[in-house]
Amino acid sequence: EGYEGEEGLRLGFEYATDLFNASTIERLGNHFINLLEEVVAYPEKEIGTYKIMSSKEEARLLSEWNGATVRYSEKNSVIELIEEQVKKTPELIALGYREEALSYSELSSRANKLAHYLTGLGIRSGDMVGVCLNRGIDLIVTLLATMKIGGVYVPLDPNYPEQRLNYIMQDCGGKWLLTESKHREIFKTFSHDIVCIDEISMDSMSNSRDISCTKKASDLAYVIYTSGSTGLPKGVMIEHRNVLNFLRSMQELLEITEKDVFIGLTSISFDISGLEMYLPLITGSKLVLIDKEIASDGNRLGGVIDEEGVSVVQGTPSNWQLLLSTGWKPKLALKILCGGEALSSSLAEKLLSIRDEIINLYGPTETTIWSGLSKVRNSEHISIGLPIANTRFYVLDENLKLVPPGVVGELHISGAGVGRGYLNKAELTEQRFISNPYEVGERLYKTGDLVKRLEDGGIVYIGRIDNQVKVRGFRIEIGEIEAVLNKFSGIKEAVVILRDDISKEKELVAYLVVNSEWLDIADEALSKEVLLYLRSQVPDYMLPSHFVKLERLPLTPNGKVDRKSLPKPDRETRLNTNEYVAPVTEVEQKLSEIWANVLGIEQVGLHDNFFDLGGNSILITQLAARIRREFKLSISMHVFFEFSIFSHLVQKIESTLEMDSSKNELSLITVQSKEKFIPLSYTQQRLWFLDQILPVKNAYNISLGWRIQGELNVDALVYA
Predict the structure, then answer these.
(1) Average pLDDT, the chain
(2) Cβ neighbours of residue 554 under 8 Å, at least 6 residues apart?
(3) Residue 624: closest CA among 575, 662, 591
(4) The domain containing residue 500 runs over which residues?
(5) Are 243 and 79 in contact (CB under 8 A)?
(6) Whole-angstrom Cα distance, residue 619 to residue 323?
(7) Are 551 and 590 part of one and the same domain?
(8) Average pLDDT for residues 511-533, to the nearest whole number?
(9) Which of 544, 569, 594 represents a domain boundary (last residue)?
(10) What's this model's pTM, rounded to 2 decimal places?
(11) Considering 668, 692, 708, which residue would you say is the last residue of a domain?
């Protein structure tokens, strides 16, 4: 309230102490006074342009709460950092994949050989080079070789739809594609050179000298494609200087040393894979690569982490849910890195039960992998923290004015991580990469993320300005899915939203208004047709879990689609698309209870399909963990895809329980007697067989070893 006293007009604030701190109210009071003074001094100004913060407050926002300015050693490329590490630790193990391991010197040698080979083919500095390889040592070698010769790699996940991969190669203008022979068929429309890495004999190549290619820090390192609102993905251009700053800063902030072991579980088409691939290689750490099938199976993933002594795991919240749903707990101290989508309090609480600190990461692709981090020690206080070195965060209003702590604004990012822009999209680049009004000569990236600052300077994520969402860590433009759906012949209108009120997981739901010829088609048949079409156009993470047919879309008074009024999909109605047959046997009843609990539904019938009820790969892991505990059975992931009908899975489980399971995909887990002899594995049998026929009995007992540097004189070695 305001009243006039002897000293003039006085203002008093009455507030709820359980909602506000005294310092917050004091700041609001000062802002109100500043506003009044501005209005009196400049009555002609527009209301939105008045300053309410003092110069001292603005200085704190601009400098004190922003990333430190750090001068790192002068390097021009990621590859220079890695080669520097090769010289420091040539004999340490750099990569491990299945049964194969490469030391730093071996990795460098192999990358150099391939680099010389690619140069001989005609690949030159600045060329766009598509890389479509499965996770493995060849992938890392190929990426390093491409960068060694100054090429700009364009990562392509072979699991993505054929049409999408071919569009990316066409859009980037790449004349070279490095892949595997089994993926060659994907690129039938690619009319330029395809090189199959698995058909190249590295052993026959003798030139392993370090290849010298003059590079500038401003040269492009890679172009990575993200979802685009027009229905087509867009390429983000990232320079070497961007990646260099990111790696150096993360090395310091995470305190990475030669003793650390990383695990590579992320698709190369997801930019955060850059941390997994390059951070260990500039620090002398070891990188353990795993196949996609292991990365998507919580039980197997947890086993690899423990067996390999992994000390650093980066994952999205969905990855961590996958692991934790199996009951896994790490055997060793672990650095838990979590990012890609908002970290919930419930997940943070679970993670803090296995480790006393979580590193929560934030960053859009356009500003190079991660731009900020916070160390979370309390599940009730989660923020995206403060920016990494040489990076600045600005929370601004629509007039690009700083907003005070506690006020929601759009996050803008500037500094060494801001990429060059979008490939072949000058207009969009100009819209999203703007001049920085607070630093002459710098650019700001408009993230589209709504945030607010806390009293300690940390930043809390609120939501999005547009229709962009995150699913399993992947950034999705809702408009891209809608644009693809609207091209389907039977659809008149399509709207897609992300819902969190259907199950325990966030799910994409597509609402469809169909043409007259599709009106009489059953919802289930329509869903299958549309899903089949979508699978050929977009990656799996962009597929809706539910399709809802509507007569018309709800509209707001001004004629726009009222997304908030779109109905929640009725799961029980979906159940009734098949005649409900109740579970009867003991196995049926137990499994039905597990399905219902995992899927968050009331009942499950014998004819129900796991995926039709909203099941996905994350929930499969939870299902496998529950079945393991209830039936003492270990089930491979592919079994759930093959036996997705409830009754079929019941039959599979019942038959396994009744028979010897030693060679079944569903392995019965039993306690073995210590006196009982265990059959040899195939590998053990092979070693025993060789031991019986070879004259040298110690072939597999390496008692001594030497590492020889320089040219090897084979004759002298044989004589010795």
Answers:
(1) 84
(2) 561, 562, 565, 566
(3) 591
(4) 477-569
(5) no
(6) 11
(7) no
(8) 80
(9) 569
(10) 0.74
(11) 668
511-515 — which CB contacts under 8 Å span 24+ positions? Answer: 511/548, 511/550, 511/553, 511/566, 512/485, 512/547, 512/548, 512/549, 512/550, 513/549, 513/550, 513/551, 513/552, 513/553, 514/490, 514/549, 515/489, 515/490, 515/491
As a whole number of angstroms, the distance between CA 549 and CA 319 comes to 32
357: amino acid identity, one letter: E
First to last CA, the chain: 97
Take residue 387 and report the two structure tokens written for it: 């920016």
Cβ atoms < 10 Å from Cβ of 103: 17
Cα gap 317→340, rounded to integer Å: 7
Distance (Å, whole) CA 104 – CA 656:
46
Q: Which two tokens stand for residue 489?
A: 């012949």
DSSP for 11-71, written as a single string: E-----TTT--HHHHHHHHHHHHHHHHHHHH-TTS-GGG---S-HHHHHIIIIITSPPP--
User: 197-201, 360-364, 530-534 — which one is most confidently predicted on average?
Assistant: 360-364
Is there a domain that residue 290 lies in?
Answer: no
Q: Which residues of 425-451 are buried (b: 16+ CB within 10 A; e: fewer)?
A: beeebeebbeebebeeeebbbbbbbbb
Kindly state the DSSP code that residue 620 receives in the 8-state scheme.
H
Residue type, 679: P
3-state SS class at 588: helix
Q: Are strands 176-179 and 152-155 parallel, antiparallel or unpaired?
A: unpaired
Identify whether residues 557 and 603 lie together within a single domain.
no
Within-domain flag for 18: yes
Tell whether 509 is covered by a domain. yes
Is residue 189 within 8 Å of residue 216, measured between CB atoms?
A: no
Tokens 């364009």 -> residue: 154
Write the CATH number for 556: 3.30.300.30
Instruction: Note the pLDDT tens digit of each residue in 586-596.
Output: 888 898 999 88
Supply the pLDDT for residue 562. Answer: 82
Q: CB neighbours of 333 closer than 8 A, spacing ≥ 6?
A: 311, 355
SS3 315: strand
Domain count of the fold of the chain: 3
SS3 category, 337: strand
CATH number at residue 656: 1.10.1200.10
Distance, CA of 12 to CA of 405 (rounded, Å): 21
Distance, in Å, from the CA atom of 569 to the CA atom of 627, rounded to the nearest integer, reads 28
Query: Which pLDDT tens digit goes with each residue over 530-568?
Result: 888 888 888 878 888 888 888 888 876 656 678 888 998
Q: Is 30 within a domain?
A: yes
- Per cent of the chain over pLDDT 70 is 89
Eight-class DSSP state of 536 = T
